Amino acid sequence: MSRLASIGGLAVRLGLAGTAPLGLGTPLLAQAPATDIYLAPLATVAGRLVLGIPVNVTHRPGYDNQPAFLPDGSAFLYTSIREDGQADIWRYDLAAGTSSRVTVTPESEYSPTPLPSGPGFSVVRVEADSTQRLWAFAADGSAPRLLLPEVKPVGYHAWSDQGDVALFVLGSPATLRLVPAGATTAIEVARDIGRGLQRVPGERRILFAQRDSAGFVIASLNLDGGRVTRVVRAPLNDFFALADGALLAADSTRLLTFRLGVDTAWIPVADFAAQGIQRVTRIAVSPRGDYVAFVADDSR
Fold first, then answer.
1. Domain assignments of the chain as residue spans, ordered by start
2. Spatial CA neighbour of 24 closest among 174, 214, 207, 217
3. Which residues fall within 8 angstroms of residue 69, CB to CB, at 6 or more apart?
4. Which residues contact 285 (CB under 8 A, 6 or more apart)?
5. How far is the C-alpha of 293 from the C-alpha of 46, rounded, in Å?
6. What is the pTM of this model?
7. Which residues contact 26 (CB under 8 A, 6 or more apart)?
8. Are 161 and 200 in contact (CB under 8 A)?
9. What is the pLDDT of residues 163-217, one digit of tens each?
10. What CATH number has the domain spanning 3-297?
11. Of 19, 146, 217, 235, which one has the fewest beta carbons inside 10 Å?
């Protein structure tokens, strides 16, 4: 079964593709790795995810990372470091197949994430004195404002639909902290976590990666009671939670899926080794579930 989809005006046939941060400490790296963002059509066929042929949509030297789709699925925001060494937020438009710069600031912005209500997006901003805190911008990159003055140093974050925000706060170990909607005080709810933080669409839960002696486990934080429960062991700490309850995770050159309550093991969706795509990491899926963006090492 296949169908045609378009990426930046390029028609690709949706078929099965090869079935079979940033470090954990901080988004600010002395020398950012060379990474690209790939985009591929995605569909569910007979209850299983099917991936189309991925296209490198940021094919250039340097760091392009942390894709996050806008709520209407027309574009994704991402972090890009260009020739000036500055980390800013860029936008990739799917229909036009072009990227445009969104923020132009003397500070560095990372981890762009659409706000849960209204236009605009939040970022982890590295301020002039190297403090890392959560900020927000208007959709066009204007009107920056500090959201949580007392919570620092922030590494990553995820919003619930209702405005709660879960934060990866740097430290030894890194901790997961929750700021309920309308509050300004962060509550510590877990320790020794990875960078993976994901809202569960339509639910009052945040999924996160937590370290143990064997690697990473995906755990669930109930936003109403604060209870943390184990979900499934993860191959690595990069994953995405889809609206239909499936998880999509990165593992070296592969993407794997796991359906809660259905699967007993991770199922391969795609293996990109034959295409020269190496070290797949950050994953984002469009709100309609028809595209996936993922990060991989620059093949050059």
1. 3-297
2. 174
3. 75, 76, 114, 284, 285, 286, 287, 291, 293
4. 42, 69, 240, 242, 248, 291, 292, 293
5. 22
6. 0.89
7. 132, 153, 155, 170
8. no
9. 999 999 999 999 999 999 999 999 999 999 999 999 999 999 999 999 999 999 9
10. 2.120.10.30
11. 146
